[in-house]
Specification:
With about 250 residues, the protein is α+β, with helices and mostly antiparallel strands. Helix content is about 20%, strand content about 30%. The chain has six helices and 15 strands. The protein has helices spanning about 15-20, 25-30, 70-80, 140-150, 155-170, 240; strands at about 5-15, 45-50, 60, 80-90, 105, 110-115, 120, 175, 175-180, 185-190, 195-200, 205, 220, 225-230, 230-235. A hairpin with an 8-residue loop joins β2 (about 45-50) and β3. The relative contact order is 0.18.
């Protein structure tokens, strides 16, 4: 369910990242090529971006298919950023609907997205603060768990790995492709669904699937974490980050 992407690098327009690529996120809303679960992502979309020196990102979320938003092309054409997170949504039956249910979720400097579906997520509700959730859903609970770890000082990559370990230890199961950024770094997990990345023009794009057929795209192996930031890009097994992790 869903497709998402994150970008970090020199400022580019949202149009160049989301709308222009031949098989980019815009087209993936109705014609994804690697999506294993579902075929159309028409239950809303969202874009978050960082502007200038402001560490708190802007978010634009709608509960309509991305192709039906008449305002987005103009916004995307004139908006430039060096750090972006965007997603298109295919809602899991029974989950909340509406703009608040569309990624990216956010708090302070953070933006978060979940590509997947988790059964048994209700067992995790008692571990999170309701005020940290825009809506009640598996993605919102995973975001609240992630935010709780970030607030205790956890680094982004270890925080995502620990949340997956915590969810699975509690009996939740499914696909945990998580994406997190604070505008200076990106952490992303491949856990049950596709994830790839490509260096581009001094930056990096991390996405559920390639946005074009040009060379340079690399797949992230399943059950691995990708981190990217000022110190470069690294891919490591999730198990390397969860050894010794305390699960409540």
């Amino acid at each position: 369910m869903c497709r998402h992407l994150a970008y970090l690098g020199p400022a580019v327009s949202l149009k160049e990242l989301i709308l222009d690529p031949e098989h980019g996120l815009y087209r993936q809303s109705w014609a994804p090529r690697r999506q294993r679960h579902g075929t159309v992502n028409a239950d809303g979309f969202g874009v978050g971006w960082y502007a200038g020196d402001d560490p708190v990102p802007a978010r634009y979320r709608r509960d309509i298919p991305i192709w039906n938003d008449e305002s987005l092309p103009g916004i995307a054409r004139v908006t430039r950023s060096g750090a972006v997170l965007a997603a298109v949504r295919s809602a899991t039956p029974g989950m909340a609907l509406g703009a608040a249910a569309a990624a990216p979720f956010g708090a302070g400097t953070w933006l978060f997205s979940h590509n997947g579906a988790v059964s048994g997520w209700e067992t995790l509700q008692s571990r999170v603060s309701v005020r940290d959730m825009d809506v009640l859903s598996d993605s919102a609970v995973l975001w609240a768990l992630t935010l709780a770890r970030l607030r205790t000082g956890a680094e982004p990559g270890p925080a995502l790995a620990a949340v997956i370990a915590e969810a699975e230890a509690a009996g939740a199961a499914g696909r945990f492709n998580l994406l997190l950024t604070d505008g200076t770094s990106i952490a992303a997990t491949a856990a049950g669904d596709t994830l790839c990345y490509r260096a581009r023009d001094g930056g990096v794009v991390i996405a559920s699937e390639p946005g074009d057929d040009r060379p340079g795209w690399a797949d992230v192996p399943d059950r691995h974490l990708l981190t990217a930031g000022p110190h470069g890009l690294a891919v490591a097994p999730l198990s390397d980050l969860t050894e010794g992790v305390t699960v409540p």
